[in-house]
Amino acid sequence: MVNDYALLTRLPLLQGISSTELLGWEEALRLDIDELPASSLPLIRQGDNCSQLLYLVSGELLREHRSSDGIYTTRSLLKAPAAIEVDRLFGLKPTYKHTYRAKTDVKMLGIRKSLLSSHLMKSEVFRLNLLNALSACAQKREAALLPTRQEEAEERLRHFLATIFPDSEGEAELIIQMKDLATYIGETRLTVSRLLNRWQAEGLISLGRGHFAIHDIAAFKERF
Predict the structure, then answer these.
(1) pLDDT digits (tens, 9 = 90+) for 21-50
(2) Cis amide bond preceding 166, omega within 30
(3) Which CATH number fits domain 147-223: 1.10.10.10, 1.25.40.20, 1.20.120.450, 3.40.50.1220?
(4) Closest of 10, 32, 6, 30 to residue 19, by C-alpha
(5) In this structure, how many other beta carbons lie within 10 angstroms of the beta carbon of residue 120?
(6) Could you give the count of Cα atoms lying within 13 Å of 76 in the half-sphere of its Cβ?
(7) How many percent of the chain have pLDDT more than 70?
(8) What is the pTM of this model?
């Protein structure tokens, strides 16, 4: 059972909630932290039912998303402290968008969704934190999807990357065949190859066979 309430009140959505209030929820919420070793086995699979508010308390998770058409896969890191896909808890399709694996040893905390309304949603602080988090998610994704005039191949490729990595930080990887990437942005394979090689020469990405890694996706998007 969790007894480090100072730690809990630093977690997303719980910030600002008093230790006294959390203590009152302890028995009902069963605030147990699970310690899990680094592993290549999935902790959560894309498409699994999002049945709990899940926290990454410490460590790093590798998250992976496969596109609905199966043509590309994205990979990025999620670092603690973080609430995992709070925007998927409710709505038309309450399932996880990513598959998660423990890149390092991690600590996880889960709170059943059924307990949100009976306890957490009764806290005004929690409700405001949740509203802010959902609003931030919506605004980031809206910004990534806004139509822009894109005459150059580089502009179209940057816009494509912004739409598939709307809220990622740190290193981000895209696994895709060059011909498929060219098709997505309406360009030739040769043009895309030249563009990616230039980005690599500028130190922005590392190219591999059938994939490339952006060293810092947030800095990459801000650069242009």
Answers:
(1) 777 776 677 777 899 999 999 999 999 999
(2) no
(3) 1.10.10.10
(4) 6
(5) 22
(6) 21
(7) 96
(8) 0.89
